[in-house]
What does this fold into?
Amino acid sequence: MFEKFGEFNSYNEINELAENLFNEGDIESIRTLAEENGLPGEAVDLYINGELPVLCDPMAAALGKLEVEAAALKPKEIMSDWLEYIKGQCMENEILAFQARKKGKSLKGCIAALLSWSFKNQQAVDKDIIKEAGVSAGKVTLGIPGMARAKKIITDYYMRGTK
It folds into this structure.
């Protein structure tokens, strides 16, 4: 992840480097920059051909970072759902998308915040449900946040430290 160019703090930093690389005629590095940051190849082609004024906007930069992080993390089931919630929040809220791109903010960190809430808010599962499920444990607890709570945790995580 971010091997050649490192992690960027904003979409502006990505666009600035892309412009410098373009001015140097280093098209291959623009493609590498885009790939490292999860930006689609079609956007690179449009940018190189002068059909897009910049390589990415805040949402594309945020979603690209999330895609790169997800490829490394390989989330499954509820974590995959949480990733989709995060993407949805970035698409609905440009400020959150900007924050998701920042250094120090990560998919792992956001999932950790969701998991932390989950453990702190476990509720005992009714014994009849445990029996019906065929579980032989004496006590079962569950603490997965609902969608509204997950969206709040996601927003709080990415917006923490902003004014």
Observations:
- Residues 58-73 form the longest helix (16 residues).
- Strands lie at 123-124, 141-142.
- The longest strand covers residues 123-124.
- The mean pLDDT is 93.
